[in-house]
């Protein structure tokens, strides 16, 4: 399946032609938008990209390098060729009881929902992404989390199976195997959880193509 892009190319942060920071940015790039899950997912990821370029990068940094981390088209050219089958993923959090408790205890929640992507809305206290920041003090809401999980479910068959505190894990039924799809997934994971996904290239070659996505917000 071809990955559909929701991250912009040359429409935020810096100009391809000059490398300069724009004086006036799109009015939608700092606040959540209503609409379809894909629209809301985009309104979540774009501020993360824009914040990295306009607020985090130092003046002397190569802004094109910063943008490249969020640009699937550029990222794809740096990734390994397509693989024939998904990489076997390993749980990072659900399989490590000492990380959360001195006892080997797990609570199982049965939730009446159309899909696991609705869990952040139905059980908003089960996980937290409070350390995520976007441009203009944009923060994540349960609806944002749900929109991204639904997008990943529809695109790659991702299912939420573990969430506690600031940790979240997805089992992925059909992860992207080609560089283009893996680059799209890696860029979105990078924008959604920079605390875990520091290296989009490494993520595009490994995690994005695996059957398990483990995320953690510091």
From TrEMBL:
Residues 1-40 are annotated as: Disordered. Residues 15-27 have a biased composition (Polar residues). InterPro entries: DUF4253 (IPR025349). Residues 111-218 form the DUF4253 domain. This is DUF4253 domain-containing protein. It comes from Streptomyces lateritius. The lineage of its organism: Bacteria, Bacillati, Actinomycetota, Actinomycetes, Kitasatosporales.
């Amino acid at each position: 399946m071809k990955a559909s892009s929701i991250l912009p190319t040359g429409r935020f942060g810096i100009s391809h032609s000059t490398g300069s920071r724009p004086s006036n940015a799109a009015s939608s790039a700092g606040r959540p938008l209503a609409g379809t899950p894909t629209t809301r997912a985009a309104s979540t990821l774009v501020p993360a990209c824009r914040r990295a370029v306009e607020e985090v990068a130092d003046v002397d940094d190569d802004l094109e390098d910063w943008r490249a981390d969020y640009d699937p088209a550029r990222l794809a050219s740096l990734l390994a060729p397509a693989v024939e089958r998904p990489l076997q993923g390993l749980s990072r959090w659900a399989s490590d009881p000492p990380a959360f408790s001195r006892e080997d205890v797990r609570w199982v929640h049965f939730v009446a929902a159309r899909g696991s992507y609705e869990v952040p809305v139905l059980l908003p206290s089960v996980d937290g992404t409070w350390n995520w920041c976007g441009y203009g003090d944009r923060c994540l809401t349960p609806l944002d989390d749900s929109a991204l999980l639904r997008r990943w479910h529809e695109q790659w068959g991702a299912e939420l199976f573990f969430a506690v505190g600031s940790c979240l894990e997805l089992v992925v039924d059909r992860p992207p195997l080609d560089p283009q799809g893996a680059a799209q997934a890696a860029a979105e994971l990078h924008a959604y959880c920079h605390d875990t996904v520091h290296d989009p290239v490494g993520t595009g070659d490994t995690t994005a193509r695996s059957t398990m996505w483990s995320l953690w917000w510091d």
